[in-house]
Amino acid sequence: MTSEEIKDQVYDMGKKARAAALALAILSEKKKNEILLAMAGGIRNAAPQILEANGRDIAAGEERGLTSAMLDRLRLDPDRLEAVAAGVEKVATLPDPVGEILSEWDRPNGIQIQQLRVPIGVIGIIYESRPNVTSDAAVLCLKSGNATILRGGSEAIHSNRALADALQAGGERAGLPEGAIQLIPFTDRESVAVMAGMDKYLDLIIPRGGKGLIETVVSLARMPVIKHYDGICHAYIHSEADLEMAVKIVVDSKTQKPSVCNALETLLVDEALAEQFLPMVAAVLSAKDVELRGDEATRKMIEAKAATEEDWSTEYLDDILAIKVVPSMQAAIDHINEYSSQHTEVIVTKNREMADAFLSQIDSACVFHNVSTRFSDGEEFGFGAEIGISTDKLHARGPMGLRELTSYQYRVRGEGQVKA
Amino acid sequence: MTSEEIKDQVYDMGKKARAAALALAILSEKKKNEILLAMAGGIRNAAPQILEANGRDIAAGEERGLTSAMLDRLRLDPDRLEAVAAGVEKVATLPDPVGEILSEWDRPNGIQIQQLRVPIGVIGIIYESRPNVTSDAAVLCLKSGNATILRGGSEAIHSNRALADALQAGGERAGLPEGAIQLIPFTDRESVAVMAGMDKYLDLIIPRGGKGLIETVVSLARMPVIKHYDGICHAYIHSEADLEMAVKIVVDSKTQKPSVCNALETLLVDEALAEQFLPMVAAVLSAKDVELRGDEATRKMIEAKAATEEDWSTEYLDDILAIKVVPSMQAAIDHINEYSSQHTEVIVTKNREMADAFLSQIDSACVFHNVSTRFSDGEEFGFGAEIGISTDKLHARGPMGLRELTSYQYRVRGEGQVKA
Q: Which chain A residues contact residue B359 at CB under 8 A?
């Protein structure tokens, strides 16, 4: 395809999505739920085609030498596909955020002001290998009244196309507006740049994938981007911590699922209890094969590799933990505000006052007291579903559910009030 | 200055602002108000220096041939400067948004979740000639706990420097953290590009000025930008409108202050009452020297110039009104969703049900029923002050007050809960 053809096709999708967004904005909750259930049915009906398409992606991936972890992320099987369909049905059970009155008040001149939740409009999702994102992102956007333009990675293109076809075919039977869910059917890199420049038709882009993808989108985008960057999460063990609780929280935060963004990466230990605490936690972590990298003070108390400056700003996503002994809570706060990716940090202490002081001085999306970092998650927060965890501070911060996929509108009513 | 020097200096300001933001985030409301009052005093103390500096800007402007409108925007006199100081004092009386609990709930596992309003961090303000923006923007950001980096236009550089010096000198006496309010002291164009790339230190940029400035910032910025684009505002006179009310609202919306973004630019008249209504409204508007530009149907009923396609998407900010006769409410809605800048639109009708249908189908920040568009304003909404009117849909939409200058943080408390 030529650049012109790519641009024309993507802009044409944008125009259709904008029209669909206006139709979606006024669909009732009941109608949207009917569409969602029909979409789940669409996936189940098309299971043979989707699995066949996925088989082609897997074969191509094997040929291109993808790692087994990458192939696993790419693979769909009947159980996984059923989970995707069930996920669509679950979104139908979640409350519709659209139409919620956020605030309302009257002015002295008698005009009545209402701030009401409305959809954002058209959301672009640019993502990498996992084909389930095609369905997850599209249905969350749909439930919140938004149209989507999906742009998946080349590894999953056959699976993505089959899934999008199934969602559309199912949804259209129940009245899904045309253009509400569209997948860019080719994977030319240029399509990302075209989307990023299409601010007339796209209100928001959410990139889901590695740092390289996010960087590319950020540097090109003319519209807002909600970023889901690294989770360099910290735990600070305060001088008044319950040591057994501290061990439990550190071990859970680090080892319960090390490959995710809310896993612990750096442990800060107050020097007041370091000599007692470090051997306790090191024993459990070492038994779980976690590699420890410590600063000089740490390495005087336990066996650990030497941590370098780079370790403090690395998201391992692996069985590795950086450890530093700090002289005070202030030193812990300073370290976190310097190196954290502003995702999730936890303090362990029995002193509620100190905990409150810590929480209020940390500039991160989620600040925890005596809780594992692994609870920094839309499901765990009770949102029912999650489109990601924003490390941005504008519009949405931390776990993003359906409400975070909405904007608002002021509706003002009067009886002929004028200013003159 | 070389590019390197500009970059170094702006980055150095960014670093200082980041440190100041952490200090500002935990200042009490009382302390912030003391600082604001001291800043107002700072302006009054430095009045001779500020007026002298402004005199130099005016002289330079005259030499450069600025229009009298531009010179007027630039000019400070003792009354205007007193209004600036009084504006600072007024912000001290507004409620502090920081610390407000937006929501809180407990999870079945016993963890307690609080969503709490916090400052955004560091806000960059890039603006053009009006020197009062230096003070207005800085104090609104300060009250909401944010540090600011201000970058004003070259026409007002002496006034801006003198104002920023006065704010800092006054504020520091009351404990304003160093680096909380900083003005870039030079006006090289490159400083805008440096700010736009400095996402490590700037959480948000708000450009205040013409379309060209906003476009430049949007195309360069790596961080969120809240845009205040045009107001191409529409009034739709529905078939069941009270004609006298409709005349009153149209005349007020168009003529009460034509130079502002919430002034009316396009009038859509339902064909059911066009023949009766158009002569009524045209008589009043013509008496007020408003130039009318109508479509073919309009020009059969009243005297008007021929409107071109361009008129439907023009923000006149002047005594000009585009007029179109529409066959139905749906046609009015379609016209607005096609041409509007999503700022403010109004329907005039006695039929509440039709009004509700109109309001819910218009994708604009503010939708009004039987109210002049001139009420689309932070002061009129009761916000006490306004940093602008956002035409964006993310984070802040419509009039922006102090709350719109904040983000939120999740604070989670538990008793050692872990996920494993």
A: 411
Cβ–Cβ below 8 Å for B371 and A414: yes
Q: Are both A140 and A184 inside the same structural domain? A: yes
Question: What is the CATH number for B200?
Answer: 3.40.605.10
Distance from the Cα of B144 to chain A's closest Cα (Å) equals 14
- Rounded-to-integer distance, Cα B247 and Cα B279, Å: 10
The CATH number of the domain holding residue B253 is 3.40.309.10
Q: CA of A190: how far to CAs of A123, A125, A213, A340, B6, in Å? A: 18, 15, 13, 33, 34
A376, A382, A394: residue with CB nearest B107: A382
Instruction: Give the count of beta carbons closer than 10 Å to the beta carbon of residue A211.
Output: 12
ipTM of the complex model: 0.94
Is B120 part of the contact surface with chain A (CB cutoff 8 Å)?
yes
Contact A292, A282 (CB under 8 A): yes
List beta partners, residue B235: B267, B346
Question: What is the SS3 assignment for A269?
Answer: strand
CB contact under 8 A, A361 and B22: yes
Q: Are residues A250 and A303 in the same domain?
A: yes
Question: Tens digits of per-residue pLDDT, B104-163?
Answer: 999 999 999 999 999 999 999 999 878 999 999 999 999 999 999 999 999 999 999 999
Q: Do B371 and A395 touch (CB under 8 A)?
A: no
CB contact under 8 A, A26 and B248: no
CB contact under 8 Å between B256 and A420, yes or no, is yes
Q: Are residues A257 and A121 in the same domain?
A: no
- Is residue B211 located within the same domain as residue B87? yes
Domain count, chain B: 2
Output the six-digit token pair for A224.
């807002």
Specify whether A48 is located in the same domain as A184: yes
Q: To the nearest whole angstrom, how far is the Cα of B52 from the nearest Cα of chain A?
A: 36
Residue of chain B whose alpha carbon sits nearest to that of A362: B22
What's the whole-number average pLDDT of chain B? 96
Q: Which one of A21, A392, A419 has the shortest CB-CB distance to B372?
A: A419
| Residue contact A366–B412, C-beta within 8 A | yes
* Residue B393 located in a structural domain: no
Residues A70 and A217 in one domain: yes
Which residues 155-214 of A have a C-beta within 8 angstroms of B?
A: 199, 203-204
Query: CB B419 to CB A361 under 8 A?
Result: no
Q: Is the CB of residue A383 less than 8 Å away from at least one CB of chain B?
A: no
Shared-domain flag, residues B99 and B164: yes
Identify residue A277 by its one-letter amino acid code.
F
Output the CA–CA distances (angstroms, integers) from residue B289 to B79, B258, B293, B316, B336, in the order listed: 31, 12, 13, 14, 26
Residue B146 dihedral angles phi and psi, to the nearest 5°: -105, 145
Backbone angles phi, psi at A231, to 5 degrees: -115, 95
Condensed to tens digits (0 to 9), the pLDDT of residues B214-234 reads: 999 999 999 999 988 889 999
Domain residues for the domain of B186 are 3-227+399-412
Helix, strand, or coil here: B17? helix
- Chain B CB contacts of A370 below 8 Å: 413-417
Residue B243 distance to chain A (closest CA, Å): 11
Alpha carbon distance, N-terminus to C-terminus of chain A = 58
Distance, in Å, from the CA atom of B325 to the CA atom of A119, rounded to the nearest integer, reads: 30
- Which chain B residues are within 8 Å of A381, Cβ to Cβ? 107, 113, 410
Helices B211-220 and B190-197, axial angle in degrees (round to 10): 50
pTM: 0.94
- A174 and A45 in a single domain? The answer is yes
Given CB atoms, is A29 within the 8 Å cutoff of chain B?
no
The 10s digit of each residue's pLDDT in A280-339 is: 999 999 999 999 999 999 999 999 999 999 999 999 999 999 999 999 999 999 999 999
List the structure tokens of B414: 């538990």
Q: Is residue A419 part of a domain?
A: no
Residue A389 resides in a domain: no
